[in-house]
Structure formats: structure tokens, C-alpha cells
Design goal:
The chain has one domain: predicted glycosyltransferase like domains (Thrombin, subunit H), CATH 2.40.10.220. Helix content is about 15%, strand content about 40%. It has 1 helix and 5 strands. A 5-stranded antiparallel beta sheet has the order 1-2-5-4-3, covered by helices on one side. The longest helix has 18 residues, at about 95-110. The chain starts with about 25 loop residues before the first strand and ends with a helix.
Length: about 120
């Protein structure tokens, strides 16, 4: 007798059923605004695709949904290719918008010699 516990029985798929897995992969954020960001990754992102991005804003992390506006190769080394991708944020909640805005203001203030 199996010790597995499930909420419902599983059904074997006899044909083909495709799926996707979402994985958080490290990226470098090159610029940031309340409307979007430019990110650099070791892989290309498909134009017009929608992804979730985790941004570390100082001591706070937020997850934003973004549409890939453009993606191009930015650097080619012997065994490494970098892609720069423009992300347009979509459906930002009020708290996320406030967190990004506060982070940007902190960076501006630090650059002016404040804080």
C-alpha cells in the first residue's frame, strides 16, 4: 500500500500534454523606472512574453510582472553571451509602485550626497 496522500486521484495522460516551469534566474538590472527596466541575462527572452521578475530594492524585495519589449545581444565572449532586455511593467499594484518609487528616490538622494 502506498503512503502517498493526494487531494485527488491522478490520471495518466495517454496523449501529449505540454507545460512550462517558471524558474527564478539571476539577472543584472541595468536601469529602472516606475514603468520598466533594462535587464541583462545570459539567455534571450521572447518578445512580447510576460514574466515575473523579483527585484531586490535595498532591504525589500518585490515581484513585478513585465512584458518583454525588446531583447538583443549585448556582449559576446568566448563561451558567454549576454542579452539586454527591455521590460515594460504591467499590472503594478500600489504597494509595489510605492516600493519602486521609494527605492528610486533613495538612489537619487544618495547620488546628490544626501543621507
Amino acid at each position: 500500500m502506498s503512503s502517498e496522500r493526494r487531494d485527488g486521484p491522478r490520471l495518466d495522460i495517454l496523449g501529449e500534454l505540454n507545460g512550462e516551469v517558471m524558474v527564478f534566474q539571476a539577472m543584472n538590472v541595468r536601469d529602472l523606472s516606475i514603468a520598466g527596466a533594462k535587464v541583462e541575462t545570459p539567455f534571450a527572452l521572447q518578445l512580447d512574453s510576460i514574466h515575473e521578475f523579483r527585484l531586490t530594492l535595498g532591504e525589500q524585495s518585490v515581484v513585478v510582472k513585465g512584458r518583454v519589449a525588446h531583447c538583443q545581444i549585448s556582449d559576446v565572449e568566448q563561451e558567454h553571451i549576454s542579452y539586454q532586455t527591455g521590460i515594460e511593467f504591467v499590472d503594478l499594484g500600489e504597494k509595489v509602485t510605492e516600493a519602486i518609487d521609494a527605492f528610486l528616490e533613495t538612489v537619487r538622494s544618495e547620488r546628490r550626497g544626501g543621507i
